[in-house]
Design goal:
mainly alpha; rod-shaped; 1 helix
Length: 86
C-alpha cells in the first residue's frame, strides 16, 4: 500500500526526471547550434586561407616584376626636367 510519503516521493522523482529531460533537450539544441556554427566558421576560415594564398602569390609576382624592371628606363636625377611650376 502506498502512503502519502511514497506518493510525494514518486511525484518528486517524476518531476526531477522531467527537469533532467528538459535540460538534456536544451543541451542537445545548444550542441546542434554549436556544431553548425563550427562548420560555418571552418568554411569561412578555409575561404580566407585560399584568399591569403592567392594574394601571397600575386604579391610574389609583383615583387618579381619590380625587381626585374630595367633601371635604364629611369632617367638620372640630373637629366630630369623640373616640373612646370618651377
Amino acid at each position: 500500500m502506498w502512503t502519502i510519503n511514497h506518493l510525494e516521493a514518486l511525484a518528486m522523482t517524476e518531476q526531477r526526471i522531467e527537469q533532467l529531460e528538459s535540460r538534456v533537450n536544451d543541451l542537445e539544441c545548444q550542441m546542434a547550434f554549436q556544431e553548425q556554427t563550427i562548420e560555418e566558421l571552418n568554411e569561412a576560415l578555409s575561404q580566407q586561407q585560399l584568399l591569403i594564398t592567392k594574394m601571397r602569390d600575386q604579391m610574389k609576382y609583383v615583387v618579381g616584376k619590380v625587381k626585374n624592371m630595367d633601371s635604364s628606363n629611369l632617367a638620372d636625377q640630373s637629366e630630369e626636367t623640373p616640373p612646370p611650376h618651377y
